[in-house]
Design a protein that fits this description.
The chain is an alpha/beta fold. The chain has two domains: about 260 residues, P-loop containing nucleotide triphosphate hydrolases (Rossmann fold, 3-Layer(aba) Sandwich), CATH 3.40.50; about 160 residues, Rossmann fold (3-Layer(aba) Sandwich), CATH 3.40.50. It has 16 helices and 18 strands. The strands form five sheets. The protein has a six-stranded mixed beta sheet, sandwiched between helices. A four-stranded antiparallel beta sheet has the order 2-1-4-5. It has a four-stranded parallel beta sheet with strand order 14-13-17-18, with helices on both faces. α14 links the parallel β17 and β18. The radius of gyration is 28 Å and the shape is elongated. The C terminus is likely disordered. It binds adenosine-5'-diphosphate and magnesium ion. The site of magnesium ion (MG) has 4 residues, from α1.
């Protein structure tokens, strides 16, 4: 286990500048920790400090409970921790194979370090070259004659060949093509989950970080802005605060991975406030579009873990929380009044209506009866069912009532909400 406790790091002892200011992190075996943050936030500095290269001014770095800078020798730390640096420049023009072979040096002690490589070394180098997909022909070439991505793979191989328990990688995919990125991520997952290694990786792509990491550490101006499981940490507000950049986070339904899209200049900035009645993933696109437009949005009752709940959270919209699989409660008269005071429009877009969320349907009706313009998507129309014929009939009745009160025919696409908002009198489009 590797940890930093309240470390303060400064490159220049004569000034008061702190590149890391009271940072604490714990790196756990068997997990992948991604470190993200804007340029200059201290990511590389943190990796240097964790790898016994840059001694902190205050605080302590511990490896298995021992002070990395006081109680652990340089060779021991080199055996335990391998590093893929951000800068792939190599000072001497060795062959790629020789550079990878250097990763074995910490494993030999005393004079053996200067001896010829052993059979074990050779097979480890061959295996690492194969993992990093460096063919024989490239391996024999002077490393500085390789392309940036090829050189990056050589340095990845050099770190792998070391067989250390901790592997720190600083933007290891910055020069890699799509396939090599995917292979590296696959291999890092394998190292963490099958070989119980501690993997720490600095990444710029938040989507990559979300898809690969168990844990996300967000640095901002030398401090930890957030640290925890990806789903808890990665929110629209956090990205806005740390990067001064508006993004839309959505969950890709097939793989479940989070995608991060930088919000384009809103095509139409609406000052309308929208209340969304969702559930079951029917409102994912609605939330995304409204986030793009920049509307003020809140959602009604959503079950925790429901796709719409995850989506609302990712967009930074509040919702009324329900436990998983709980039946949706009715809106009280006070709720109806408050919603119609606070919001201009209702969008009704649950994936389906059943006995579980029949109250969503009555909520839509109550809000429509209170005079609020209400819209729905074609995808949420015509999906009202229950196995109980009594309930089914009730759903049908409420459904027909709601359909008759829509302010416009059901929309084919969530994008149509934008067109609708740009019309002056959206209530008169029915
Ligand atoms: P990141 O990796 O997050 O982009 P760094 O850790 O490289 O950021 O840098 C953090 C801060 O420390 C930046 O302000 C950078 O200019 C400064 N810095 C980085 N390396 C050095 C160095 N060798 N000497 C002086 N300042 C440095
Ligand atoms: Mg860096």
């Amino acid at each position: 286990m590797l940890s930093a406790e309240n470390i303060v790091v400064s490159y220049d002892a004569s000034t008061n500048d702190k590149q890391l200011d009271c940072v604490s992190v714990t790196i756990v075996p068997g997990t992948i920790t991604a470190i993200v943050g804007p340029n200059g936030s201290g990511k590389s500095t943190l990796l240097r400090t964790l790898s016994r290269v840059l001694r902190p001014k205050h605080g302590v770095v511990l490896m298995d409970g021992r002070d990395l800078y006081q109680a652990v020798s340089a060779p021991e730390s080199a055996r335990a921790i391998s590093v893929v640096p951000q800068d792939t420049h190599v000072a001497f023009d060795f062959s790629a194979r020789d550079v990878v072979g250097m990763g074995r040096m910490p494993l030999h002690t005393g004079w053996a370090r200067f001896a010829l490589e052993t059979a074990d070394d050779r097979s480890a180098v061959d295996a690492a070259l194969a993992t990093a997909e460096i063919p024989e022909e490239l391996a024999e070439r002077p490393v500085m004659s390789l392309s940036g991505g090829e050189r990056q793979r050589v340095l990845i191989a050099r770190a792998l060949v070391q067989e250390s328990n901790v592997i720190l990688l600083d933007e290891p995919t910055s020069c890699l093509d799509l396939l090599h990125q995917a292979h590296l991520f696959y291999h890092l997952r394998h190292l963490a989950s099958s070989e119980n290694k501690s993997v720490v990786v600095v990444l710029h792509d938040l989507g990559h970080a979300a898809s690969i990491a168990n844990r996300l550490i967000v640095l901002s101006r030398g401090k930890v802005a957030a640290d925890g499981p990806v789903a808890d940490v990665l929110t629209r507000e956090l990205v806005r605060d740390v990067y001064q950049c508006d993004v839309i986070l959505s969950r890709e339904p097939i793989s479940g991975s989070i995608t991060v899209i930088v919000n384009p200049e809103p095509r139409f900035r609406s000052d309308r406030s929208v209340y969304v009645i969702g559930g079951g993933g029917g409102s994912v696109d609605v939330f995304r579009i409204l986030a793009e437009v920049g509307c003020h949005v809140a959602a009604g009752y959503l079950n925790s873990g429901d796709l719409d709940q995850v989506s609302a959270k990712a967009c930074g919209f509040p919702w009324r929380e329900l436990p998983p699989f709980a039946v949706t409660p009715e809106l009280s008269d006070d709720d109806v009044k408050k919603i119609s005071d606070d919001f201009d429009i209702v969008v009704f877009a649950p994936a389906a209506v059943s006995e579980m969320n029949i109250a969503s349907l009555s909520a839509g009706l109550k809000l429509a009866r209170s005079g609020m313009p209400i819209f729905c998507l074609k995808s949420s129309a015509g999906v009202a069912t229950s196995r109980d014929p009594g309930v089914s009939a009730k759903i049908q009745r409420l459904w027909q009532d709601l359909m008759s009160r829509l302010s416009a025919p059901p929309l084919a696409d969530a994008k149509d909400l934008i067109k609708l908002f740009s019309e002056d009198d959206y209530a008169g489009t029915a």
